[in-house]
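User: Sequence recovery, please. Input:
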């Protein structure tokens, strides 16, 4: 299965995705972005520094970059899995559809034509083949988000917290509801894990139960 690990910034997606790849044989993952992606990191820094007139360029770069890498990686993954008796899963650390959430929030202050333009690009670039068979949403409250946000200590984020506090609050307030609506619009299966009082190990156990349940259903249907 293609499985999207979803959720707000600092919800634990990357940690869970990495651990699940280790747990399930012959599985692979695609991170949301490469830590050494100079273009992404520059855009991100400019975004948090609130440079003007870069929002739609940043959002378009993200979906174009993620989409092109996904197509290559998933093709390689399917080819390798043909040779394995035990079929692995392909995990996505946030999948392409979720970037629509950021665009909707980030372009809200712009003229409507910008969101219309992004909509057109999004619908052309994101195809059904990129959507996961299952999405697991890691839910958390705002205080937990803030605690984890500062704990992971990415300077580009924490150094600009006060400048972007309203943005993070707005993103948090809308993220889950827009995610659920997108899943309904695109007919995606999704499950939600409340991570607030769970350890990383407990979150992983919950995710494993969900994955095994859907995997067994797929085998039965096939």
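Assistant: Recovered sequence (222 residues):
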């Amino acid at each position: 299965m293609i499985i999207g690990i979803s959720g707000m910034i600092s919800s634990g997606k990357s940690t869970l995705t990495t651990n699940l790849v280790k747990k399930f044989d012959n599985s692979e993952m695609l991170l949301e972005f490469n830590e050494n992606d100079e273009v992404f990191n520059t855009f991100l820094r400019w975004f948090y520094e609130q440079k003007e007139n870069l929002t739609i360029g940043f959002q378009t770069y993200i979906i174009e970059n993620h989409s092109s890498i996904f197509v290559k990686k998933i093709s390689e993954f399917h080819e390798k899995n043909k040779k394995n008796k035990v079929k692995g899963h392909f995990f996505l650390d946030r999948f392409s559809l979720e970037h629509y959430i950021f665009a909707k929030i980030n372009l809200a202050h712009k003229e409507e034509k910008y969101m219309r333009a992004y909509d057109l690009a999004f619908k052309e670039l994101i195809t059904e083949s990129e959507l996961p068979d299952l999405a697991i949403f890691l839910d958390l409250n705002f205080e937990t988000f803030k605690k984890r946000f500062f704990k992971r200590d990415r300077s580009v984020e924490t150094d600009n917290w006060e400048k972007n506090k309203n943005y993070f609050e707005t993103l948090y307030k809308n993220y889950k509801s827009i995610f659920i609506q997108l899943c309904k619009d695109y007919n995606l299966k999704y499950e939600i894990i409340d991570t607030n009082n769970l350890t990383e190990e407990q979150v992983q156990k919950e995710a494993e139960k969900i994955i095994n349940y859907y995997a067994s259903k797929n085998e039965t249907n096939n």
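The two ends are 13 Å apart (CA to CA).
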